[in-house]
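Troubleshooting: if your tokenizer reports a length mismatch, compare your output against this known-good record of 129 residues.
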Amino acid sequence: MAKPAPPQEVRELRIVVVGRAPVVMTPAALLAHPALSSSAAGGKARQVPLRPLLDKLVGPGARVAVVTDATGGRAVVPLAAWAAPGVVPVLWRNRRGLFKVGFVDAQGRRLSDSAEYRDVVELAVVFDR
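Known-good structure output:
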């Protein structure tokens, strides 16, 4: 059986809140948001902290609950991972132009025991407060 082709560049990321119109994030729009410093990110891809990004785009207290990838696969983002002290949820684009979500420490280093969500096309957002 042939291996499926890797997903192509994603031109937008949908941020969905129940009862509201989705917010569409393009690569250009992502560049308009503050990122971790390049030294904090270890010289890796430009990582944008998700908490302040969501505060600005959909309102304070928002968090990512479900991530959908380019194949339609869905993964639940545990509240414990999102709310962990010293952990920064981040959004970035990889070399193929696909959105990724992951967790880093305050210095931008990936946490070895945390999940990383690849080829992301949609973030389902909820409010806990």
